[in-house]
Model the fold of this input.
Amino acid sequence: MNSIAIGLIVFACCFGGALFGMFLSTRLPEQHLSGDSKNVVNMGMGLIGTMTALVLGLLVASAKSYYDTQSTELTGMSADIVLLDRVLAHYGPETQEVRDLLHGAVARTLELLWPQDSQRNPQMTPTAAGGEIILDKIQELSPKNDTQHSLQAQAVNMAIDLGKTRWLMFEQGGSAISTPLLAMLVFWLAIIFTSFGLFAPRNATVMTTLFLCALAVATAIFLILEMYSPFNGLIQISSAPLRSALAHLGK
Done:
């Protein structure tokens, strides 16, 4: 289920809870809505509100950490790509084929992660041309002196590290928000909004306020979920580092 659908569900649960609370207030006996009852409900909602705030903070921190990790790894990979190209350039003209393969692999990676066709989903799975073939070509080089031996060894290590980073980003792409935790959070929010409606006067100002509050909560959940999809959706990682690396390859 995508983040928009989940956001709409959260909004429906919150605003629906408020409307249900208003409905209950017309059906409950008067003693259930007395000042003492209201005080007890407020204390209980304060406890649930505190727990909800803690869980929301946890989800924000987790989503932001995942987003920042993916962004940092992309930037580091982009810098390593340029450095690998420079090492191959220092090796000699024999590496021109490898450098061309590297250029093509980066261009394909850009198209896979940020497809020009907006209807296509980003493809996180690394391709063979993006790592193994380049590594094989580097290992097939025949160094003629100690300098080339050293540069070849460095290039092999860098190619392995690039492949490791790329697969790490792919494996991390399976991270997602905990469904039971999200369900419990939405349940708590629905309870809170029900308590709002239970004691709220029924007028346009209150209804508008509750509507906007439910919308704000749903938007917050939506943005948290969007950070778990950093290569598509509303909050995307910038492709600028990889595009900059591509522009410097072959020079």
